[in-house]
Amino acid sequence: MAAARRGGPAAAPGASVRVLLLAFFVFMLRGGPSRAEDDTVAAARPLSGGQTLVSKRGKFRLGFFQPDNSSQHWYLGIWYNQISLHTTVWVANRETPISDPESSQLSISSDGNMVILERGGGRSSSSSTLWSTNVTGIASPNSTVGVILDNGNLVLADASNTSAVLWQSFDHFGDTWLPGGKLGRNKRTGEVTRLVAWKGYGDPTPSMFSLELDPRGSSQYLLNWNGSEQYWSSGNWTGHEFTAVPEMTSAGASPLSKYSFGYVDGDNESYFVYNVTDESVVTRFQVDVTGQIKFLTWVAAAGEWVLFWSEPKKQCDVYAVCGPFGVCAENALPSCSCPRGFRQRQLRAWLQGDHTAGCARNAALQPCSAQKNGKDDDDRFYTMPNVRLPSDARSAAAATARDCELACLGNCSCTAYSYGGGGGGCSLWYGDLVNLQDTSSSGAGGSSISIRLAASEFSSDGNAKKLVIGLVVAGFAAAVTAVALATFLILTRSRRIKSLRRVEGSLMAFTYRDLQSVTKNFSEKLGGGAFGSVFKGSLSDPDATLVAVKKLEGVRQGEKQFRAEVSTIGTVQHVNLIRLLGFCSEGSTRRLLVYEHMPNASLDRHLFGAVGGGGVLLSWDTRYQIALGVARGLDYLHEKCRDCIIHCDIKPENILLDGAFVPKVADFGLAKLMGRDFSRVLTTMRGTVGYLAPEWIAGTAVTTKADVFSYGMMLFEIVSGRRNVGQRADGTVDFFPSTAAALLFDGDVRSAVDSLLGGKADAAEVERACKVACWCVQDDEGLRPSMGMVVQVLEGLVDVNVPPIPRSLKVLGDPTKYVEFFSGLPSA
């Protein structure tokens, strides 16, 4: 970083730099148009097997796909072509899957319609039509073609003039509503375009949940169950918003305010349409498997869909979301369960997220003719407290709870009763229980309901005297056994704890059952990453200490080695490193780590989600202190631990913030636990290529300077408040580190600061941070500073010169140089 270094000769671009730039080039431009591929199907050019059609600008792809690898069902569908996660937006044959795409094809039939044909099995050469556009009056098969458009619309059009559309998928939505599509009703034909959810995440079959324009003629949109039960309404259109969706125009604070919406009520049709002005934005509305309408936007830097808006807000407000006899619970995973005496009616569908089949009894109730009024084998009742009562109750006259019970028991069609509640009285339910909700976890209180079960679900009374004698004898024996067992366990536990403390120092050793209890059976997920998922928990100490429990995935060490590694990590203590409190190790699959809980979550939430994403807009002072704190934590890992620890995955998602926004480097021990090679592969595959140093991609030896490079890339994001890689309106790449470097040389670094701060930033600190970031991302690791030096510079103890702009930043910041650069590279 000294002036002498700056004036030294530039390092020749070696193989590692070439590979880095090539990787970055592919990574950042993978959202650009794909190679020219056919977008048309015709009578002479059918589509079959693994063949696909791609829209002209490469945005959407059409072909056969398999949503669930465990089944043999295939479908013809449309999905995004330029995002990393396969996301289907339309399916043709939702109710008629095919078993073999090689023997099926999309073609133009003899009547000019677009059809899916499946060839018969065995030696049969005949084909059956599984799906058709069903347009009448087409002249001949050679007069029409099928075309996939760049807005995701599949059209059947005149072959000589494809703008003359005869049929389009936008008139036959699936579960997804894309920009430009009209969601409404044709007043002349009565035809309605509606969104219908998939039954399960691996099953496109239409479910009970749908969204459509009010068939009674108002301008509101309704979420319905089974086409009849309305459970949410948008409210009527006011001219600029729906009355129940104020987010559409709430002072620009909502993501919905960034899109243009319009409602049209004409003579021939009424419909609602929305559009996005920025073509780089990928967005969609979807009626989810859960029955909720969701607005999602693709965030390429995170490699996932981000939810910005949904209705109903509460999952349990969706009608019959858990099916007959299913119990819904808010803030629980899964949200649906079966009460005592019941099991999932369709387990496979249940595991795919489709709970609408509900729960079935473990044991059948007594037939009406067999009821004996109080005998041993009569049906009985199980009482559930703290519930929101289900739908369709009937009132009955009853002076007491016992009278209410007898009223239900006396009618073999009665399945449950409730007495008292808010208004008192007796309520009875006949047939299936629907919309039953457990409110105990939400703290909302509720009523109690008594559900009718077969007598076999309860222990038999038997002979009272024999029962009393048996209980006395059993109780005495149990007491003696318990005393002996308790003594043994206390002694054993004492020896075990002492042994653990000798191995793990001050760490607490938990059992898997302990952590199930601490996390309420892992019900509240905080997040997840390359190494596993994290859940919120609370220890049963006097202070009810909050913790974060991480379930590790892919740990390869044996029990003894794992404990030794955890013990090493547990001794690492620094104010800017997340503190490890304990662990669990039971077999090769139950490996968990218990950390202190960070109330302000991760840095990325506040940098990239300050507006509409639930984060807090960080001031410049806070950002600078976060950058300094992270540098101190990494310096400790690299230079001050007994063993040098390379983090291997520095990025905003791995920087956690406590209640005062003090940064804590997280996951710093996982690279050590998992193995460096494993970490590198996961990091590459999980979408954080933008933070990887050249040596990672080249496969050469990795030193602490790999963390320095990642830190530099993250520091650019702290300054700008945006992801380093973006896309301009004209489709070209916007690579912020190159912009920051240019501004640094032009003496205008204040322009690099997050615009949301309104210019409120210390100019000297901004310049210092940009210089440090540029030094950290040098192609040659020998030019990168140590993290100790970074700390001194940020603290103002050491001055720093303007660094040379790395060649990779020059190239990636100017797409016009790509061809020149790559053609000039010598072969590896």
UniProtKB/TrEMBL annotation:
<dbReference type="InterPro" id="IPR036426">
    <property type="entry name" value="Bulb-type_lectin_dom_sf"/>
</dbReference>
<keyword id="KW-1133">Transmembrane helix</keyword>
<keyword id="KW-0547">Nucleotide-binding</keyword>
<keyword id="KW-0325">Glycoprotein</keyword>
<dbReference type="InterPro" id="IPR008271">
    <property type="entry name" value="Ser/Thr_kinase_AS"/>
</dbReference>
<keyword id="KW-1015">Disulfide bond</keyword>
<keyword id="KW-0723">Serine/threonine-protein kinase</keyword>
<dbReference type="InterPro" id="IPR017441">
    <property type="entry name" value="Protein_kinase_ATP_BS"/>
</dbReference>
<keyword id="KW-0812">Transmembrane</keyword>
<keyword id="KW-0472">Membrane</keyword>
<keyword id="KW-0430">Lectin</keyword>
<dbReference type="Pfam" id="PF00954">
    <property type="entry name" value="S_locus_glycop"/>
</dbReference>
<dbReference type="GO" id="GO:0030246">
    <property type="term" value="F:carbohydrate binding"/>
</dbReference>
<dbReference type="GO" id="GO:0051707">
    <property type="term" value="P:response to other organism"/>
</dbReference>
<dbReference type="InterPro" id="IPR000858">
    <property type="entry name" value="S_locus_glycoprot_dom"/>
</dbReference>
<dbReference type="InterPro" id="IPR011009">
    <property type="entry name" value="Kinase-like_dom_sf"/>
</dbReference>
<dbReference type="GO" id="GO:0005524">
    <property type="term" value="F:ATP binding"/>
</dbReference>
<feature type="signal peptide">
    <location>
        <begin position="1"/>
        <end position="36"/>
    </location>
</feature>
<keyword id="KW-0245">EGF-like domain</keyword>
<dbReference type="Pfam" id="PF01453">
    <property type="entry name" value="B_lectin"/>
</dbReference>
<feature type="domain" description="Bulb-type lectin">
    <location>
        <begin position="38"/>
        <end position="169"/>
    </location>
</feature>
<dbReference type="InterPro" id="IPR003609">
    <property type="entry name" value="Pan_app"/>
</dbReference>
<dbReference type="GO" id="GO:0004674">
    <property type="term" value="F:protein serine/threonine kinase activity"/>
</dbReference>
<dbReference type="InterPro" id="IPR000719">
    <property type="entry name" value="Prot_kinase_dom"/>
</dbReference>
<feature type="domain" description="Apple">
    <location>
        <begin position="368"/>
        <end position="454"/>
    </location>
</feature>
<keyword id="KW-0067">ATP-binding</keyword>
<comment type="similarity">
    <text>Belongs to the protein kinase superfamily. Ser/Thr protein kinase family.</text>
</comment>
<feature type="transmembrane region" description="Helical">
    <location>
        <begin position="467"/>
        <end position="492"/>
    </location>
</feature>
<keyword id="KW-1003">Cell membrane</keyword>
<dbReference type="InterPro" id="IPR024171">
    <property type="entry name" value="SRK-like_kinase"/>
</dbReference>
<dbReference type="GO" id="GO:0048544">
    <property type="term" value="P:recognition of pollen"/>
</dbReference>
<dbReference type="Pfam" id="PF00069">
    <property type="entry name" value="Pkinase"/>
</dbReference>
<feature type="binding site">
    <location>
        <position position="551"/>
    </location>
    <ligand>
        <name>ATP</name>
    </ligand>
</feature>
<keyword id="KW-0418">Kinase</keyword>
<protein>
    <recommendedName>
        <fullName>Receptor-like serine/threonine-protein kinase</fullName>
        <ecNumber>2.7.11.1</ecNumber>
    </recommendedName>
</protein>
<keyword id="KW-0675">Receptor</keyword>
<keyword id="KW-0597">Phosphoprotein</keyword>
<keyword id="KW-0808">Transferase</keyword>
<dbReference type="GO" id="GO:0005886">
    <property type="term" value="C:plasma membrane"/>
</dbReference>
<feature type="domain" description="Protein kinase">
    <location>
        <begin position="520"/>
        <end position="798"/>
    </location>
</feature>
<keyword id="KW-0732">Signal</keyword>
<dbReference type="InterPro" id="IPR001480">
    <property type="entry name" value="Bulb-type_lectin_dom"/>
</dbReference>
